[in-house]
Specification:
Layout (H helix, E strand, L loop, with lengths): L4 H8 L15 E8 L6 H7 L7 E7 L9 E6 L7 H15 L4 E5 L4 H4 L3 E3 L2 H5 L20 H13 L4 E6 L1 H16 L5 E6 L17 H22 L3 E6 L6 H10 L3 E2 L2 H6 L4 H17 L5 E6 L7 H16 L1 H9 L3 H8 L2 H9 L2 H9 L14 H18 L9 E6 L10 H19 L5 E6 L9 E6 L4 E6 L2 E6 L9 H15 L15 H4 L4 H6 L2
Parallel strand pairs: 3-4, 3-6, 6-7, 7-12, 8-10, 8-11, 9-10
Antiparallel strand pairs: 1-2, 2-13, 4-5, 12-13, 14-15
Helix pairs in contact: 3-18, 8-9, 9-19, 11-17, 12-15
Length: 550
Amino acid sequence: MKISELQEARYRYQPKLPKMLRGEISDIVAKEGEKTESVADKEKIRALFPNTYGLREVSFEKGKGEKHKRERVGVILSGGQAAGGHNVISGLYDALKKADKENVLIGFKGGPSGLTDDKYVEFDDDFINRFRNTGGFDIIGSGRTKIESEEQFKKAAETAKKLSLTAVVIIGGDDSNTNAAVLAEYFKANDLPIQVIGCPKTIDGDLKNDDIETSFGFDTACKTYSELIGNIERDANSAKKYWHFIKVMGRSASHIALECALETQPNVCLISEEIESKNMSLDDIASFVADSVAKRAENGDNFGVVIIPEGLIEFIPDVKSLISELNDILVKYEKEFKEMNQNGKTSEFLKEKLSPSSFKTYSMLPEEIQKQLMMERDPHGNVQVSLIESEKLVSGLVKKKLDEMAKEGKYKGKFNAQHHFFGYEGRCAFPSNFDADYCYSLGYNACLLIQNGYTGYLSRIKNLSKSADEWTAGGMPITKMMNIERRNGVDKPVIKKALVELDGKPFKFYEKNRDKWAVETSFVYPGAIQYYGPSEISDRTTITLKLEHE
């Protein structure tokens, strides 16, 4: 198979480990800290996890430890792809082999279902070496199966016992690591000597807290999107005739949108959490963006860039109410709706069924968006908001607003929109040096947690705004991050998502500068991810992480 020169060079790249993790595995010892409690709903979480609740935080330091037991470890990639997953597996493999050459690492194919369905591959040096420092999850594939039924738990236990596993490492986001906590509790409750360790992954950046400074993949995704946004900004400034509306991934939180804005300084960046906090309507959002368009037109600048988070639609109060009503109506009156829709009387039907305020919101939407709301539903009868082209929705509403302003003599510019959605482009790029190093350290550290007998923990690397030499390693009980949320009518224990903090330093920095960026052409062109060269360029992390830990 022919490979690129960059791919060949990346195979040879040796990820940087924290200084404290270098040397012999037996020269690293665990130090336990205070007992932990869940972030909320303490009694409910304690009741659900009686065997793994209240565990102590763990940090690693140099010292003389004991010779550890031999390990047979299974590893699972779970959920959406994120750059660096291969390096978590590489770091785990290398640490296991360094501890004992007879240790074994098994990869379960296709996500958690690989464990329940007994589908796996045993790794060796040649296999691992083909995937070092590369993007994607193609080493074993991924999946979104949740291990939650009694039958699934039993099948997972049977596979683990058949393979004589001592531990399972689950690499995933908040739902996947919630699953890791549940699996750890099940094994412990049934006296099965199988440890479970999680590793924090998601490009969305919403798996973080005081202990998890960032999830892996976020750095690479933001740099990839920022390169593309910078390219578009350069094009916009060259052609000087288009407004570009760019949607970026991030369903539940706007971390990616905010980081890309800090990297590229667009004219407008919508932050879902702020829109919800200020109770902004669709009309408010249209006015906010149109104001920038109009002010730039006064300077002769009929071009610009707007960044929109993927999950925007769910944070707009009036749209959120509309969607909630539609979900109920489309289930309750399914047959009647289909007949009215086929006869071209959808609007008449909805005017009768929706509340006046929701029908007004519906009427504001462009026809294409109305169709998307009507046609796309999930198996539970809910509107699939992720399929709504919010970048086109916003630009369409801005166009209407500008037309109104023009009639009143408040706008004399030209407005032509282009639309983009950056999603899959950022999930499987060659990991940045930061993600390559961070992920390798997470996997290496997971081995140490296993060797020291811990279960129900998340691999934790901290001090990430510093050089890799200064990073620290340890583990955090997963139950510490959990709360209770209502899912499909049932209370479920889940890891609490981290949204953009409006009083946090990254947002405050953006807020301080956005009025200037809205009118002036302050574009920044980050360029491609740099893998080689001066450390301040090739090893730099996100502006978000830098600001949060100044």
